[in-house]
DNA sequence: TCTGGGGTCCTAGGACCC
DNA sequence: TCTGGGGTCCTAGGACCC
């Protein structure tokens, strides 16, 4: 049987945020625990040494579930679910606030541990990565006699390295490409290793629901099911011309290829950010006129934080955009490209003010955000005009809506 | 008792230029 | 003076992912 030209791994940390919390609160192992909510109370220890936790049933507000332990998932509580809805399903579940500094720390630790075994890594966020194993010695040397054995041994080595560095488990899928590996890493979760070749596609991939493919989301998934295609195998068996008629040239082709397990995307070890943003959902919907001062202050703060992000990462940007979400969840964006890159909070605020003027405020607002794109490295930005001169600019004041 | 926050990529129309 | 065809940039919205 011909061997694949690449061995690509997808590594996914098991219930990552929840598992990091369990390192801190090991007494919660096996409990239904939910991470989420902006102001959930942290656990506190009573005088007698016992712990007191916030419970899901006591939560009020607009938060969503960020992660849940496997025990909570058994009760029907999943990521992105509204906390109020989750509370109906698991009122007694323990609610912990998210601690992103801690998660980022463990993220760096596990990625460094993987890099010691296999250095060609593509970052896919805080809790998952792709790894090119093709040239890792234990894999390369096994080509010809026992390729699958070599791949599995390296996978075990990676898992051990992650465990030693963090005390956390992960699941790994290894196949000839990213698309299949992403699916494979979920087939034996938690703490599993799944190795597949192209020959395994009919038996292992085709029975899966279409939504298991990374790139088929809620909308496309619904449409496929309505068209009678429930499984990946159903897509694979469909006439590609018909798929193109239904989904367009680009997505139709992609669906056909994906269902057959074809994907030639490379591992990307370095990338530059495209945009940076900050947004916030309000506790209650706000009125553009009645809450004008409050909204103005929130916009000031978002621009301030965005400017700090830019400074920390040493970028400036030419395009400033705002995002508004109204009651009813209707989202509107406006953006504006400037002649030169900017990076200060005042410049961002000014551009955001111009964008705000182009929006009709006929409903209450639930979210406001600011984004900066068209990024350049800060070193490429021409020297700033001195603040004293800028203050003279006539249009500086009274331009913004809020 | 709906629906966070930070991203990427794609599409499609219009402006503008050659 | 009744109408082409690219290419690129900008803008708005939307799908999708972690």
Q: Report the uncertain regions.
A: none
Q: What is the CATH first-level class name of the largest domain?
A: Alpha Beta
Assign an overall shape.
globular
The major pleated sheet works out as: 5 strands, mixed
User: What is the end-to-end distance?
Assistant: 67 Å
Query: Taking strands numbered 1, 2, ... along the chain, how are they ordered across the largest sheet?
Result: 8-9-1-10-11
The CATH homologous superfamily of the largest domain corresponds to: DNA polymerase, Y-family, little finger domain
Radius of gyration: 25 Å
The helix/strand series, from N terminus to C terminus, equals EHEEEEEHHEHEEHHEHEHHHHHEHEEHEH
Average pLDDT metric: 94
Annotated CATH topology of the largest domain: Dna Ligase, domain 1
Tally of structural domains: 4
**What class would the helix/strand composition place it in?**
alpha+beta
Helix content: 25-40%
């Amino acid at each position: 049987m011909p061997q694949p030209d690449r061995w690509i791994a997808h590594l996914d940390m098991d219930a990552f945020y929840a598992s990091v919390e369990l390192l801190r609160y090991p007494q919660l192992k096996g409990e239904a625990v939910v991470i989420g909510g902006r102001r959930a109370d942290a656990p506190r220890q009573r005088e007698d040494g016992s712990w007191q936790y916030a419970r899901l049933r006591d939560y009020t507000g607009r938060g969503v579930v960020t992660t849940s332990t496997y025990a909570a998932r058994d009760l029907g509580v999943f990521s992105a679910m509204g906390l109020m809805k989750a509370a109906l399903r698991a009122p007694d579940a323990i609610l912990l606030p998210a601690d992103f500094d801690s998660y980022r720390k463990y993220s760096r630790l596990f990625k460094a541990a993987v890099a010691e075994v296999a250095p060609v890594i593509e970052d896919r966020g805080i809790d998952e990565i792709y790894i090119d194993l093709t040239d890792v010695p234990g894999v390369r040397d096994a080509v010809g006699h026992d390729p699958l054995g070599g791949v599995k041994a390296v996978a075990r080595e990676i898992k051990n390295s992650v465990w030693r560095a963090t005390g956390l488990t992960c699941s790994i899928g290894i196949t000839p490409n990213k698309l299949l590996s992403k699916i494979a890493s979920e087939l034996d979760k938690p703490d599993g290793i799944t190795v597949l070749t192209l020959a395994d596609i009919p038996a292992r991939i085709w029975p899966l629901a279409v939504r298991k493919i990374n790139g088929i989301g809620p909308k496309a998934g619904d449409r496929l099911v309505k068209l009678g295609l429930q499984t990946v195998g159903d897509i694979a068996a469909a006439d590609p011309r018909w798929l193109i008629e239904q989904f367009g040239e680009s997505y139709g082709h992609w669906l056909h290829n994906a269902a057959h397990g074809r994907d030639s995307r490379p591992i990307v070890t370095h990338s530059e950010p495209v945009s940076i943003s900050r947004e916030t959902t309000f506790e209650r919907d706000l009125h553009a006129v009645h809450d004008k001062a409050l909204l103005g202050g929130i916009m000031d703060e978002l621009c301030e934080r965005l400017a700090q992000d830019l400074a920390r990462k040493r970028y400036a940007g030419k395009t400033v955009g705002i995002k508004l979400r109204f009651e009813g969840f209707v989202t509107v964006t406006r953006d504006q490209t400037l002649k030169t890159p900017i990076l200060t909070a005042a410049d961002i605020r000014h551009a955001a003010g111009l964008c705000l003027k182009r929006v009709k405020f006929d409903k209450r607002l639930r979210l406001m955000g600011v984004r900066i794109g068209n990024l350049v490295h800060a070193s490429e930005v021409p020297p700033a005009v001195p603040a004293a001169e800028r203050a003279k600019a006539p249009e500086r004041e009274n331009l913004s809506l809020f």
